[in-house]
């Protein structure tokens, strides 16, 4: 069958899961599939949204794509691509790029980019320092927002000082400031990001033309060995493990420990125990402000909210430290290999002009690349976790007034609905009448939770609609790994050897072992020493787990995806962008991962999965 005869399902062919129609209709109209969407190409954004979306959590897509598109389309003016449109069906987010195909428009945009984007490249360090100051100020502003509260009567000082504003007005002001801060954060997030990908992609394209045989992985290794804040949380866990050994309190950290008991026991121990607890506080602020996921779901709590992730890593690190095993990232080796590769490939160039271009491009890539991971700590993690915790405070207030049963129920409302519930409460407080919300929201919350549960069990197609001739968006190629080759592989699903999966070669190494298929962060506990992690996507905050696993495989991701970068930084064999490894490989299967070739071979499925494999 020719590729032209194949296509992904059309958006119009997707049906809303029976019984969830009202939950689907409650998502904003502008992210529902439209009649003309069949003519476009869409792909499932399982990298950022691997689980069904709660209605409030959709703000993470909305705010992000507002900002991404603004910088692509209107600020930096990328020549071949504009923004990203998003749609949701059955809780799953599909996205589609907006390419620029008219040669005259591409040329006009390229001229603008030369003036705008290159200003950032020329002043990168100064602008990045400014950026950190802006982000820290935004975080401080969010922290200072008052906890929502409605007193029985206004304090007398409201009268005596002539304040002139009652508590119910402060509710809506606080909520709108929270939303404004979150949307502002996403603009800061994309101020540099696509420029970072663009600089790398320009170097990537140069290398592909100059060295036709070079692999994607070889090019990406030329920017390895980076220092970025997103690796700091894991480094702090290692530091705490070393301090536990040095202070002689390491025996308290066992695989089956109860964290509260450990903390209480260390406090009782006195001197060494209290000193370790002081070290813990030093690490927690700010470095434990990272989520166990990628920061896009309200229930991906931070390490500070739930110490399970860092504490789960401590026994393994302690054991290795006591055995004299090096637990650090192989930075010296990465930098040595990187510098040797940069030199070796430079020598293959024939002209001084090509060498000068090569030098300029690799120098720029090295300057800008740490931001590609570093921004995540401040944006997706620290700020986003703070934002969701502030929204929880509104959940608590609404529970106190019987709008629903528990504070987490607030996330079943869209951000528009939450504003309407707050206004309902404002009106009730001001009039002295009971609010209407308690008779409305509990049934809706129950219905939407049932929809989430229903959507969670469904298989999702990796892409929809028309297959594009070419993909020129640097983010879609580098981050998601969506290329014509990867689409052709997805379209060829079912052809060839059913036990071999192909993806991007993220990090060298061949490993055979037991596959541990992780469908959500809630299943991380299943990972045993030596397992091969198979998932839709991972992120840098899972780094403490990398001491346990022997290799990693993901459904989505390109050579510059977070998983690929982290795997290279830790020297962990990995294949990314396989399309559907987490569906084809059964938990407990024996597999072989070849991180150099970008292949995953299913050697043996677990017994109960055999009939399913034969049916396929």
CATH topology of one domain: Glucose Oxidase, domain 1
- Helix fraction by DSSP (H/I, runs of at least 4): 40-55%
Q: Per DSSP, what share of the residues sits in E-state strands of 2 or more residues?
A: 5-15%
> Which runs of at least 5 residues are low in confidence (pLDDT < 50)?
1-5, 610-616
CATH first level of one domain: Alpha Beta
Coarse shape: globular
Mean pLDDT: 92
**Count of strand segments:** 12
Cα-to-Cα separation, first versus last residue: 19 Å
Calculate Rg over CA atoms: 25 Å
Task: Describe the main β-sheet briefly.
Answer: 8 strands, mixed
Please identify the structural class as seen in this structure: alpha+beta
CATH superfamily of one domain: Phosphohistidine domain
Strand order, largest beta sheet: 5-12-11-7-8-9-10-6
Per CATH, which architecture of one domain? Answer: 3-Layer(bba) Sandwich
Helical element count? 20
Briefly characterize the structure.
The protein has 20 helices and twelve strands.
What does this structure look like?
- An 8-stranded mixed β-sheet has the order 5-12-11-7-8-9-10-6. It has a 4-stranded antiparallel β-sheet with strand order 2-3-1-4.
- The protein is globular.
- Among the domains are: 100 residues, no CATH class; 123 residues, Glucose Oxidase, domain 1 (3-Layer(bba) Sandwich).
- It is built from 20 helices and 12 strands.
- 42% of the residues are buried.
- Helix 6 runs antiparallel to helix 13.
- It is an alpha+beta fold.
- It comes from Aurantiacibacter rhizosphaerae.
- Pfam families: PEP-utilizers (PF00391).
